[in-house]
Design goal:
Number of strands: 0
Structural class: mainly alpha
Strand content: under 5%
Distance between the termini: 41 Å
Order of helices and strands: HHHH
Helix content: over 70%
Radius of gyration: 19 Å
Length: about 90
């Protein structure tokens, strides 16, 4: 499944209420900017290297994004989030 189908729930789980509008705006802008920027990047890659580097550069970029996601984003699955909150409350209240 694509993230576009579920991004509202993910953004709602990750960002607090006061920052949620900004994050959804940035994500929405990226979906419209991508079709303009990607062909320019790919034409630069093919002009300076071979055509197969489009595949390799895309793969390397996706690996980088996955590493950043695992490093900086917390889980947004409801049961995991609730379990963490319950554990934190249990530690503070005893």
């Amino acid at each position: 499944m694509d993230l576009i189908e579920h991004y509202d729930g993910v953004l709602t789980d990750i960002w607090p209420k006061d920052e949620r509008g900004k994050s959804q705006t940035i994500y929405g802008m990226l979906t419209f900017i991508r079709p303009c920027v990607v062909p320019i990047c790919y034409s630069y890659i093919t002009a300076n290297t071979t055509y197969s580097w489009i595949y390799w550069s895309t793969s390397l970029f996706e690996i980088l994004v996955q590493i950043l996601v695992f490093a900086f984003l917390s889980k947004s699955f409801a049961s995991t989030t609730l379990a963490r909150k319950a554990k934190k409350i249990w530690k503070t209240t005893g």
